[in-house]
């Protein structure tokens, strides 16, 4: 239920809200007032459920009784790195069966420019017999979520709205203004809003690709990339700091550029700069394995049969989300090099990868750390006892510069 934070805000604003999901387990949790997502306050969710302002169901027939429908479903990549919009398609089909006149339908899932008008609109019209712009309103307003951000959340993050027709744009924007505190920016079409969201994430993808490439070059030159970045960000204009790491994670930044490059080919256009940044970022887990080899070599230790502990499988610090996390690929690559690999993440006790489930440590201590040849910090959770980790580990490879404030770094190598 990707739209739970938005559903909570709508209910808090006084709108009776129903969440629809095909996953019965999540539906049951919400109906009990049990939160399963980091961006929602537990007590607020329970209060809204207990008061009857928020409920969830797997029965899409309730859509005939609502005025506003937000589609907030996953848009992953398939096995061939092509857009998988099957969730958008199936949700649109389910909605179309119960769509009534005057309803606002808004797609919030990240996707390629044209999805709302080329895919969602025909499905809704065919399934309902209604006409877009005459009988119902249709638009696109991308989710802007930064998990773990304590300043900008769903309530106060600015929103972009693009709809089919000026009336639809005004009506949908007014709905969001009644719920959210952030500015609502209206654009001329859903395609503009769809492209805007991809630009946001592609901008980050390209800049992270740049610093990852600088990082690899700095390592060859014996220069600290982290010190270079800290020096560069002292410039008060013309530069924004991005940081290297073991790869990109999350549901948007690693995926959205693939949506754009796929759509661009329809127009005979090759997004060369974007594709190059994707190649660099996708390569980072392999590069980190190469660096692990070097750290182990300094100990006269072969990779095969080495014991490696990876700290962190979440894709960013202080959250419990491991979607597209580079840690998973890093662990898999280390295992393919015949190392024995375990993990610890204070937020994630187990994860699923390529059809298998992997269990981690519930906690770590000095004795556990001492038993490993190498500790890899893959996610910089703030709860780590870095002094204990440093004192107890034979060698550390820090991919996030989490150890930057430690005084003794004799056994630490930083990406």
Short synopsis of the structure:
The chain is of the alpha/beta class. The chain has 13 helices and 14 strands. The strands form four sheets. The chain has a five-stranded mixed sheet, with helices on both faces.
Question: Describe it for me?
Answer:
α7 packs across α9 (256-264). The chain is built from 13 helices and 14 strands. By secondary structure, it is an alpha/beta fold. The model has no long low-confidence stretch (mean pLDDT 93). Helix content is 39%, strand content 14%. It folds into 2 domains: 4-194, NAD(P)-binding Rossmann-like Domain (Rossmann fold), CATH 3.40.50.720; 213-414, NAD(P)-binding Rossmann-like Domain (Rossmann fold), CATH 3.40.50. It is globular and about 75 Å long. The strands form 4 sheets. Strands 3-4-5-6-7 form a 5-stranded mixed β-sheet, with helices on both faces. A 5-stranded parallel β-sheet has the order 9-8-12-13-14, covered by helices on one side. β10 and β11 form a beta hairpin.
Which key features would you list for this structure?
415 residues; alpha/beta; Rossmann fold; 5-stranded mixed sheet; 14 strands
